[in-house]
User: Fold these one by one.
Assistant:
Number 1:
Amino acid sequence: MKEEDVLKIVDFHCDVLSKIQLDRNLNFKSDNGLDVNLERMEQGGVLLQCFAIFLSERLGPPGIEHIMEQLDLYQERIAAVGIELVRNTADLDRVVASGERAGMLSIEGADGLEGDLFYLRLCYERGVRFLGITWNNANWAADGVMEPRNGGFTRKGLELVQTCHELGIILDVSHLSQKGFWELVELSESAKRPFIASHSNAYHICPHARNLQDEQIRAIIESGGRIGVTFVPWFVNDSSVVHSEDLLPHIDHICQLGGEKHIMFGSDFDGIDTHIDDLRHAGDYCRWVETLLKYYPEELVNGWLSGNALEFLRKWIPQGK
Ligand SMILES: [Zn+2]
């Protein structure tokens, strides 16, 4: 395999937009206050970065204006320095062929959509292609994983799922409650549309509520979905210093469950203030590639870094001419 093939990394989750919304002085080009910036994407070989729209509690009650503001910030700060938005398969093919860096947009938590499906359509028109239904708490659509009552979807939430399926927005179960997860499995089955967990690890290896139980991992694999192994230290293990090699048991475990073609990465960079000690920002992907190649065949590593994600996207984002 050639070097340029290895350094085509797809990362399925970062919170840069939320950080810039709170601090307009942050410069996406090279500001070291950002784990993901242009310089670091180039350094780490990140080809395609998924940018989440997460609304901080510091903004006050979540509203559509906050989502629109982050969409504007994407255009003004990120697309403006050359990270063009991928909306369909034609855009994706262009990116892969040219090797030019690109971005995709997801919403992390439907809170800011205010229960209004017109707002969802508006976001779709502006390029949003993924929706994480909840963050940790309950919202109008469903309960998050930290909500003690463990509720599933509301009536409105079921409509949200249906509309996403109609539009071609891919659903993301990271942060969703157990009950919500299993309800979504059924809905996805009948719609014949798979779903992803953009940033979650294996509960069997690290028993944190945000990680996926074995049955959940199997269900995602069965749906044809993808799991973004994440670099959040406390989802890796409970030691005070976490190393990148501590991620390997998570990868091995998902493989044992049959998921080697379903693994990708969702770093959660800029969504965390503590890092894996040798995976601190997008530039460290270089080193991470070397570590993976020490332990696994190139073909598998290449799949995890980009192949599995790209194959999924080609199939499930809107077809473009
Ligand atoms: Zn998250």
Note: The CA atoms of residues 244 and 278 lie 6 Å apart.
Number 2:
Amino acid sequence: MLHQSVRFNQQHTDFYFDASFRQLKQMLKPANTFIITDTNIFPLHTTYFKGWKTIVIPAGEAHKNIATVQYIIEQLIQLQADRTATLVGVGGGVVTDITGFVAAIYMRGVAFGFVPTTLLAMVDASIGGKNGIDIGLYKNLMGTIRQPAFLLYDTHFLKTLPDAEWQNGFAEIIKHACIKNAAMFRNLEKLSPALLKKNKQKLNELIQKNVQLKMLVVKADEFEKGERKLLNLGHTLGHAIENQYSLSHGHAVAIGIHYAAILSQQILGFKQPERISALLTQYGLPTHFVFDTKKVMNMLQMDKKRQQEFVHYILIEKIGKGIILPIPLKDLEKIYKII
Ligand SMILES: NC(=O)c1ccc[n+]([C@@H]2O[C@H](COP(=O)([O-])OP(=O)(O)OC[C@H]3O[C@@H](n4cnc5c(N)ncnc54)[C@H](O)[C@@H]3O)[C@@H](O)[C@H]2O)c1
Ligand SMILES: [Zn+2]
């Protein structure tokens, strides 16, 4: 196990990489700890939860809502959780987002930590302190920014992770490499999903590098004023087509990254869009996608990254270096049409 402590303004977050869930017993008292997990994870890993007070919520994005928040809070009251309680979210991004949110509001705030169990939650969702829930169709509309006390990484959980969920994680990992780390990009070109699933050490190294990369970006810009926007690479177009065409998040982001690479070629003279599409393909992700430009432009009009008539688009100057560029909506429409 590798322990790393990262300071965040007043407090710090402890990271336990290459760790085992069982080590939680050395860190926390079961009497005062409340685990939150979901209905998919609990039956697959029951032995882990023995001896812990556990609240099991229904799995899936549809349940990242106020009804589930209310359910968790009622369970906490029943289990007599007080101000000294620690909540531990053991799950994917849905569980970690909702756990962080409940911890921020229960009795005006209690301590919390995460054990992410999807690749996406490990490298992305559980890091950075953003938490929250959806209100109807509005994703993450209600939430706070608050850093967890600890993150514990146990890749054993990934043994039961479906392939589609691995792909969601790989899309974010490739995103990280494109915007910030050319060496990681080259390393990914040498690896493959099959190899990473077999090689625990390489997988742990990759996870750790991605966590550090996201932590650095978030630390430099906790409240998303500049640098943190780079993490939106592939997400501008990605979000628009994800909902319109019911794509998985990973597929939508991969297509978004591919389009950002082509835009980068046209606007900045970026030379290697093919290298990016080849890597996406290597990790089982799609690149080309035919979409209705009008519909997508309507979605972008409402995008929260838009200021006046511009979209703050994330482009790639070269592999390992993302930049933020305001692009006029009308130019974007023209470019989308000819790609
Ligand atoms: N807070 C942030 O900064 C941030 C960043 C990115 C994403 N998110 C949020 O994260 C969520 C997406 O995260 P996600 O992809 O992990 O979704 P998720 O939590 O829905 O997990 C995906 C699926 O995998 C199942 N699962 C989880 N771990 C498993 C395991 N070990 N074995 C088998 N099945 C398992 C879950 O039950 C679920 O069905 C979204 O709600 C998104 O808004 C938040
Ligand atoms: Zn994403």
Note: The chain has two domains: 2-161, 164-339.
